[in-house]
Amino acid sequence: MAKKLTVAVAYLVVFVFIGCGEDEDILENAPREILWKKDGSLMTLILASRFEMGDNLDNMENSLPVHMVKLDAFYIDIYEVTIGQFKEFVNQTRYNFNRWNDVADFSATDAHPIVYVTWADAETYAKWAGKRLPTEAEWEYAARGGLTSKRYPWGDELSRNNANYEGVEGNDQWDRETAPVGSFLPNGYGVYDMAGNVWEWCVDWYSKDYYSQSSTQNPKGPKAGQYRVLRGGSWSDHEYGLRVAYRYEYEPKTGHYLGGFRCVSDSLEP
């Protein structure tokens, strides 16, 4: 009996060891960039990792305390969802979206990000595409681009050569409007416009004090709330709103001229 048990335990150990190795190989060998066929989005793989979420550089109260978070791997859209992509979604599904005249006032062409979308609009699009909205933690980690303890996706100094935000100068030639997606250099993960252009919906409900009670592994925000989280700042914001750790809350049933979104996926194969 003891011999049989020893053999069984040894077999289990070998099985678990091999299984873990296979999972790691799958992640390591997954394509870093894919084309998501449903909506034509380019996506990049963000590998599983740990990072310090939050910011104590300038005492932003709702970004404290800084805490360690562990995330599973995920794919994220390289660009914000464009008007052209959202039009295709509406055409295929007959989705009721009646803000096109308003959208045209701030996003001029199909290559510009969609705006005036409510949280539900963004969530419905993501489900149609077979994806989802990012968690606040996923969004921040992707925005940091591999950097630690920095204010922006590229470092600590903000320049209009890096993002579309309030004013016109340098590479930022868009005044009181969005820029076409990908008009500025990407961050270290190859993701564009994680600062400025449009605020981006996250899946999380907002709570000012959530970080003090957040899960340390794949946090998904509070179970309920009044507002949803927006991240990244917009063409109308000052430099403070463009911080990778800056958290903003907004009424989820209201579409705003500064608000858009991008999607993520847990699938390593489209």
Which regions have little confidence, pLDDT < 50, spanning 5+ residues? 1-26
Helix proportion range: 10-25%
Shape: globular
Please, what is the CATH homologous superfamily of the largest domain?
paralog of FGE (formylglycine-generating enzyme)
Radius of gyration: 20 Å
When the domains are counted, the total is 2
The order of strands across the largest sheet is: 1-2-5-10
CATH structural class of the largest domain: Alpha Beta
Instruction: Please give the largest β-sheet.
Output: 4 strands, antiparallel
Strand content: 15-25%
Question: Average pLDDT across residues?
Answer: 89
What does this structure look like?
- The chain is of the alpha+beta class and 270 residues long.
- The chain has 2 domains: 30 residues; 233 residues, paralog of FGE (formylglycine-generating enzyme), CATH 3.90.1580.10.
- It is built from 5 helices and 10 strands.
- The protein has a 4-stranded antiparallel sheet with strand order 1-2-5-10, with no helix packed on it. It has a 4-stranded mixed sheet with strand order 8-7-6-9. The chain has a two-stranded antiparallel sheet with strand order 3-4.
- It is globular.
- It starts with a helix and ends in a 5-residue tail after the last strand.
- The N terminus is likely disordered.
Architecture blueprint of SSEs:
Blueprint (H helix, E strand, L loop, with lengths): L1 H28 L3 E4 L4 E6 L2 E5 L13 E5 L2 E4 L5 H11 L6 H5 L14 H10 L7 H9 L54 E7 L22 E4 L16 E3 L8 E2 L3 E2 L5
Parallel strand pairs: 6-9
Antiparallel strand pairs: 1-2, 2-5, 3-4, 5-10, 6-7, 7-8
